[in-house]
Structure formats: C-alpha cells, structure tokens
Specification:
Chain lengths: ~350, ~350
C-alpha cells in the first residue's frame, strides 16, 4: 500500500438536537460509515451517488473541514486526523476544494482578482506583486482575460465562474483537488470545456482529483477508479472500466440504466431506476441500506448488512446477491468501442 | 433510439392515437423584439415549428440561445419590454398573438401546462401543495373547493408522490427536489392541457430523479395525448425522449427535423459540437469536443452566420449573409455542412 492519500475506515456522525433548546439527543445521522480507499498521485477517484449519499461530506472529511468521528486520513504518510486544527493548516495548502455552485461560493462584492488571491493572502504567501502575477498567470491558463482581475463575479457566466473557482483553488499550488460537482449546473458544452481543462491541468501539474458527481458519464471521463456511495456507505468500488462494464451492485446497475442510451451506449443489466427516495440516515436499519428500493431484494437483505467483498481484482461490492457475471457478460457489450 | 421504439410498441391503442394526427401548436416565423426604434433588437428570429398531439419536440441550445424566450413567447409571458413583433402562434384553432390579455390568460390556464427548471422558486412557499394544485382547477375549470381538492389528491397519486393523502397539506419546502418537481407536474396537468412546455425540468436533479421525472412525463404524455415541448441543452436526453429536434443558436434555428434523421446525420457544425461534448461511459480516452468562446449577445448579432466566430469550418463567405435553408423536412442553415453520419 503506497497510496499517497489513504482514507481508513472513516465515520462521520452528526448528533441531532444536541445543544438545542431541549438539549436532548434526537438521534444520530450516520453521514458516513466505514469508508476506506486510496489514491495515488496524479490519479482521479470518482465518488458517485444520489443527493444525500454522503459524497460531499466525504470530500469535506478528507480536507478535515468536517472532522471524521473515527478513522483516519493519511496524506503522504502524515495522519491528518491526529493533528490539531493549527497543525493541519499547512496541509490545507496542498488540498483545495472546488464547489458545485460558483454563484454561492464567491463573494459577489470582491473582484475576481481578490477572490483568486485570497487563499495566498490568508496563508501569508508571497508579496502583493507576486500574488498578483500568480493570479494573472492562472487567469491566462484558464483561458480568461486578465481584465477579469478588476471585475466582479456577477459579470461572468456559470462556466467562466467555475474556471475562476478552479483558478482560486490552484493558487496555493495544491496537489489534491476535491471537485464537488464542478459541472452539474452547466450546459453540456460548458461541461465539456471544464472537463477538458481539468484533464489538461492534471497532466501538466500532476494533480490528484477526488471528483464528486452524480453523473457517471462525466466521472468516467476523468476517473481511473470509481466508488459508489449509498446512504453513507460504499456499495461498490472498482476500476472505471470494470465498474461500467461489469457493475455488480444492483444500485450501480440502476444508476447506469438511468442514463440516456446515448451516454451508456451499450446495454445494461436493465434494472429499472429505483423507485422512491433513499430512506433517512437517522438511526439506519441493520440490513442493506438499499434493500427498500432494490429490485432484487431478499428477506436476508433487510436483516443482515452485506460486507464489501472482492468480485475481481480491485473490484469490491457490498451485496448479498451481486449481479452474476453471466448476466453481466450478456448484457454489457459496449458497441463499437474498446470498453 | 431503440429504447424509444420499444416504448412505443407496447403502448396500447386508444383514442389518443387518433388524436395524434392533430396539430396542437403551429408557430410560423416567430420573432421577438426588445426595445424600440434604433435600439430595437431581436432575441429570437423567424422560428417555425409545429407539435402534434402525443409528440415531443426537443428544443436544444446553450444558455442564451433563446429557448426559454421562445417558451415565454408561447405563454404570453415575455419579460417587460419584449413583444412578438411578427409571426403567428396557433394553439389549436386560436391565434394567440391576437388575444387580449384576459383571453390569453384563460387559454394559457386551460390549454398549456408549464414545468420550470427550479420548482422551489416557482412554487409559492406559503401555500400548501393542495392549494396550489387545486387553484388552476378552480380558476379555469370552474370546480368547487371540494372537487378541486379531490382532483389534487388524484393528481399527486398519478405523479407518484408516495403517501399523497397525508402530503396534501404539506408546504413545498417539506418536499425533496425530485418530489417538488412532481408537484410542479401535477400542477401543470391540473386542467388536462393539450400542450406541456417543460423548460429544463431535470437540470437541478440527479441522474435517478432525472430518469424518473422524464419517464413520468413520457407516461403522462401517452395517457393524456399531450404535445410536449422539451427544452434542454442535452442532446442525449432529446435522443431518448423526443420525436422532433430543433437546435437554436443565438436566437435562430440552425438545424431542425425528425429526431431519427437528425441523429443519424446531424449536418450543422454546431449540432455536431453539441453531440461531441457529451461524455459517454465507454469513452476511448478521446478528448471531448468543446466549443471555444460564447454566443454573441442579441445586440451584437452579426449579419452572417451567428456561429461563424466559434465554428471550426468557418470561411469568409460565412460572414457575408445568413446561410440559406438547405433540405426539406430535415433542414439546416450552413454553407459548409458536415457530411455523412455522426
């Protein structure tokens, strides 16, 4: 295990109602349970799941914007979780986040230049002139006009704003970017530009990405490995190619079936999209979290939680009845591509 | 595409099939102008299309292409300063560009349903879901309060809101994004409209909710025999759900035709670019097609092809005059169309 970033059995729990008016604990939200994975330098892992699956919380927990309740996050051999808030600060330069909504994540009263230079200012890096040079160079790299320095984010479109957000994330020369749905509000053509830009930046700077999205199409474009989350637990993790051609968890299969045929190209396991919505993550049941919506659920699924098991090299799934390889071979022939 | 024919084949034969011949909406040379005199500018120009009962038209383009403005013009809901400066919009046998405001409101309430992108900002936060769904039914269909409430319940069940009876008296904020969009659909369907305009109905939703909502609209369309105008920036969704495609760029049609012909061989470079921008699951590591730059603003529309500035195939001729129409049913406006299949 020589992973540069190592996430080990991370749990994040929030207590409800604690400290409120009545000061009684109304239950615990299990936002994340037992999450483990590794990421090498220059690689991308995709986190997939519906809203409420815990994928954004995981991104925050890795950066320690939310403290894991248990477990550990190692970055280049250092256990971040054991450090105090002050000790973590220098590591923050190495890890930055790009948020989903570039409209909400920027102060509308700051100029683009101020926004991009702010991380340097906060970390006391460089002199004013140097900071400015850095910001201008980043704007150039993002394909934005330098005149943006003195303009306000309100003057820019969603796609341009997302590029400003990426520039801001890159000012401290980070090695890891957590990209939280960076393209979900954008047009298809804007999304393509952002995805291409991220890919180029990765190969130029050797960045590692944690790419959070609900869109398997976009994730498979960037990620070498994909982890599927459901209600705060890993249901499947595999190399991208294995996951999309041999999805073993019924949830993954139905996520793929929900994609338009043009995107999924080949045939899938033909599981209908799950009905209804995920159950509450307050005091979850003891069985498989997906059993209430799973088309293949059996009585056992409601009582016994499935553990992650290997189905192939590097391919793990948490399901008592993973989709058979025979089904998958029959149903997942990509058409005209080298899947 | 195979998926679509599959859906169609197990659709029961019923009266809606007979109605499917009727044209619900016919738009000819629709132009919307803002401002007056020298400062006047067109945001959409000479759009023509028709939608029949049971049919879906996919209206495709980037933000700023004029697709939402088209919907607003059809609904008579243009923002202040905008007006339909020429062209005709026929809903059934009624020319709605000539109606008075009151008559237009009544026609809109009964005949056109609309679903917007962001249900939270288009639902009234201070009214219960039952009140909102029932309101148009009382206003335009003359139902009593009781009948309207019963109707609201039935609609909520129809759009698949679980536990509908208990949820009738909930407020919009108590619903999740996907459920809120269902409430919007129930509201749009209250008076059994002949035309449903869905403006980016799933952009804010995750993939599973998106599939659920679009399949729901498709099912309801079949049951009610509605015509649907599906506004989106995503051609992969149009390929799955629409029978006709119209691609807009900077307020003008660049390509239009039956979905089958369009997707077999899209001819306009812009249509091609939109298709190549879609990330597919089994990508071969090939770069996504992206289009540099932004569409021109309506005040600065050039005389020539409006896509010229961003087009990979541009030549000096493209800047001279707007390209003439080529093709009949499947047609496009380009001097250097893409040859052959996609």
């Amino acid at each position: 295990m020589s992973d540069w970033l190592k996430v080990q059995q991370v749990d994040v729990r929030f207590n409800l109602g604690e400290g409120g008016l009545l000061r009684q604990n109304q239950g615990t939200v299990h936002a994340l349970s037992d999450i483990s994975f590794g990421l090498e330098r220059g690689q991308t892992i995709g986190l997939i799941g519906e809203s409420g699956s815990g994928k954004s919380t995981l991104g925050r927990a890795i950066l320690h914007l939310v403290r894991p309740s248990s477990g550990a996050v190692h970055l280049d051999g250092t256990n971040l979780t054991a450090l105090s808030e002050k000790q973590i600060r220098p590591f923050r330069q190495q890890m930055q986040m790009v948020f989903q909504d570039p409209f909400d994540s920027m102060n509308a009263r700051m100029t683009v230049g101020q926004i991009i230079m702010e991380p340097l200012l906060l970390q006391h890096i460089g002199r004013a002139g140097e900071r400015r040079q850095k910001a201008e160079a980043l704007l150039d790299r993002m394909g934005l006009d330098r005149r943006a320095m003195n303009r306000y984010p309100g003057q820019y479109s969603g796609g341009q704003r997302q590029r400003i957000a990426i520039a801001r994330a890159l000012t401290t020369d980070p090695q890891l970017l957590v990209l939280d749905e960076p393209t979900s509000g954008l047009d298809v053509s804007m999304q393509a530009r952002i995805l291409n830009l991220l890919r180029d930046l990765q190969s130029e700077m050797g960045l590692s990405y944690i790419f959070i999205s609900h869109d398997l199409g976009a994730v498979s474009y960037l990620a070498q490995r994909i982890m599927v989350l459901y209600l705060g637990r890993v249901v499947e993790i595999a190399p991208t190619c294995a996951l999309i051609s041999n999805a073993a968890h019924p949830y993954t299969a139905s996520l793929m079936d929900a994609l338009p045929p043009m995107v999924r190209q080949g045939e899938t396991a033909h599981l209908p999209p799950p009905v209804g919505e995920p159950p509450s993550s307050v005091n979850p049941s003891s069985g498989c979290a997906f059993h209430t919506r799973c088309p293949k659920a059996q009585p056992r699924c409601g009582s016994e939680r499935p553990l992650l098991q290997n189905v192939a090299e590097g391919h793990q799934v948490a399901c008592h009845f993973p989709l058979e390889r025979v089904d998958r071979l029959q149903s997942s022939q990509p058409t005209g591509t080298t899947g | 595409m195979a998926d679509k024919t599959q859906h169609r084949s197990h659709m029961p034969l019923r009266e809606t099939d007979m109605r499917s011949e009727t044209t619900v909406l016919q738009v000819k040379d629709l132009t919307v102008t803002f401002g007056r005199g020298r400062k006047a500018f067109n945001v959409i120009e000479s759009l023509s299309f028709e939608v029949r009962a049971g049919e879906t038209l996919g209206l495709v383009g980037e933000s700023g292409s004029g697709k939402s403005m088209t919907a607003a013009a059809l609904m008579g809901l243009l923002p202040w300063g905008g007006k339909i400066s020429s062209g005709s919009v026929q809903l059934g046998n009624t020319e709605i560009t000539r109606l008075s405001n009151a008559a237009l409101r009544a026609a809109r309430g009964r005949e056109i349903g609309m679903i917007f992108q962001n249900p939270l900002s288009s639902l009234n936060p201070s009214l219960t879901v039952a009140q909102q769904i029932a309101e148009p039914y009382r206003l335009y269909c003359g139902a009593t309060d009781q009948a309207a409430r019963a109707h609201a319940l039935q609609l909520l069940q129809e759009v698949g809101v679980p536990d509908a009876e208990r949820r009738l008296d909930d407020y919009p904020h108590q619903f999740s994004g996907g459920m809120r969009q269902r409430v919007m659909i129930a509201m749009a369907l209250t008076c059994k409209p002949r035309l449903l305009i869905a403006d980016e109905p799933t952009t804010a939703l995750d993939v599973i909710n998106q599939a659920q909502i679009l399949r729901l609209i498709q099912r309801l369309q079949k049951e009610h025999g509605m015509a649907v105008i599906f506004i989106t920036h995503d051609l992969s969704l149009v390929a799955e759900y629409a029978q006709k495609v119209m691609v807009l760029y900077a307020g003008k049609t660049v390509e239009q035709g039956p979905a089958e012909a369009f997707f077999r061989a899209p001819r306009h470079p812009y249509s091609q670019a939109l298709l190549h921008a879609i990330p597919r699951l089994f990508n071969t590591g090939e770069r996504l097609g992206d289009i540099d730059g932004l569409p021109p603003r309506p005040q600065e529309f050039p005389v020539g092809c409006r896509f010229a500035e961003r087009c990979p195939a541009v030549t000096p001729e493209c800047l001279q005059a707007y390209p003439t129409r080529q093709g009949e049913v499947h047609h496009f406006y380009c001097i250097h169309p893409v040859r052959g299949a996609a």
